[in-house]
Amino acid sequence: VSRGARNLSSGINAEYGDITATAVMLMQVILSWALYRTNPSEPSKSELKKLRKSVVQLIQQCDELIQFGVASVQKEAFITVCDMLIIFAPQLKQNANYSSLIVVPDKSVQIRLRDYVMTTVFAEEDPQQFQEDEEDEAKTEVLIEKRRVLASFGKLIAFNIIEMRLAAPIFAQYVKSYQDYGDIVKQMMSKARELNRTKCMRTQLLSLEQLFEELRDQNEGRIDRSSEEWTKIKDLAHRFALMAGVDNYKSRQAVVTFHREGIIYCLLRNGPPDGSPPSNIVFFDILAETTFKLMDIDKKGPKGLLAFLEEQLMKEGEIPEDEIEWGPLRTYRTALVGSMSEPYMYYGKRKMVGSPMRVVEVKRPRDDYVIDNWQASGSGNYVQ
Fold first, then answer.
1. pTM of the model
2. pLDDT range class, residue 3, cuts 50, 70, 90
């Protein structure tokens, strides 16, 4: 394997790709069998040390093959790394004797694994890749292999082996690639939500932000709010909100964090306010698609999102209510309030839409618990 890695990385002897791929697969089987043969109650420390060294070497060599190998070798190396990280994951701590075998990938390896998925699974296919007489069969085989790669990465998310935020570009493909990979991506997000609802929704928010910035860059800094691409991003946001679950109490902390951090992103500026709307102001349209998951107290309560929004808007100074550029902000505020005809309530020097009577009448003594905990932890630092 080491020899194959050196040859392929330097572009020499690439014809040995199939042999190298087979060697990688066999090394995985050998090391897995070596772990199985150890005595769980009294394993030899020297054997464990030797085994861990071999596992680390195999992962390092496969990481090199993923970067420089031919396609067949890259795929086998990727699958091997994923399987090795799962076999020698932190769950080995269940047996204290095996704690020395745990292998945790560094950030650079995690990023390369994610990038391989993005370039291999979600890259646009070359129309000349298949011949007409074998097109359907060949496409099916390629699709099966791509789904295998994506599923292997999904297992790393499910076992909490890699950082969840790195999966944001993959979550962003949910609607676009729904027909081919929607079931795998949905299961990946479901497992992420089981691990930590708040982290999952933060990752989904990052997905939407990345799609928003990509679309804006493609259109030279402008967003056509009537375009099909923009509609797809809004649809993705709506689907993300639906995935939060039917029990709004369980997802309450995560949804509130999603909106608070989304508001901060919408009003983000590179410099001081100059009277023009922030460059991310249109993103309020995306947030408006998810307000149906919010509870009333989290929308219009004394410590709710309307109060938080007004607090952030105080930094903007006076906002002209009739300018089209600020339209997304008005859309989001209307989505929070439900009706712009409701009475005004005041926080500080700014007026804000809401109903003070509705807040007073709520009979849930712990309803502000979520908001208090979020504020106590600081924006962006809440962990469920």
1. 0.82
2. low
